[in-house]
Specification:
Blueprint (H helix, E strand, L loop, with lengths): L6 E5 L2 E8 L2 E8 H4 L2 H18 L22 E8 L4 E12 L2 E11 L5 H23 L28
Antiparallel strand pairs: 1-2, 2-3, 4-5, 5-6
Organism: Methylomonas lenta
Protein name: AP2/ERF domain-containing protein
């Protein structure tokens, strides 16, 4: 049997469908005997899985841990920090976005620059990009889509938040 997402064959008598959202499991067993054949039980399992994915859409967990009420920016998952580089003896202003990928906590840092030379425009650009990054991540989670963070690779040269196709911040 080719691998079908959320569908397993735990024994030779049927297929099991399991979907977990926000800690709650939705599952059902499809017996080959009850459905008439192995092919029919697999089709029924896939149909039920597709219906459940529509019903459970947008219920994925956005956080590994509940978010703290403390925030330095007012945006959940985005923080403003000053990082000190001991090698260069300089401080750098950064906006860091926290997100989850493959069940692991990740972060993306948008470094504005040296604290002593950074402009208000540079800081606003980094903040707006960080906020867009986080909202694109949340939009992907809400629609059970994969989040592609590669479009933010060249963020310093691009004003991604001005792109109407990408802009999901409200």
């Amino acid at each position: 049997m080719a691998k079908v997402k959320h569908v397993t064959e735990p024994d030779s008598f049927g297929f099991q469908v399991r979907i977990v959202r926000r800690g709650k499991e939705s599952s059902r067993y499809f017996s080959h005997k009850l459905w008439g054949s192995k092919v029919k039980s697999l089709k029924a399992a896939i149909t039920w899985r597709d219906q459940m994915l529509v019903a459970l859409k947008g219920s994925r967990t956005r956080f590994l841990k509940p978010p703290k009420n403390k925030t330095t920016t007012g945006v959940t998952g985005v923080s403003r920090t000053i990082k000190f580089d001991h090698r260069k003896d300089k401080s750098y202003l950064c906006y860091t976005v926290f997100w989850v990928k493959d069940g692991k906590s990740r972060n993306k840092t948008f470094q504005v620059g040296n604290v002593q030379t950074v402009t208000a425009d540079d800081e606003l650009h980094a903040f707006r990009t960080a906020r867009l990054f986080r909202s694109c991540y949340e939009e992907a989670i809400d629609h059970d889509a994969n989040f592609d963070d590669s479009k933010f690779a060249n963020w310093k040269k691009l004003r991604l938040y001005e792109n109407e196709n990408l802009n999901v911040v409200t």
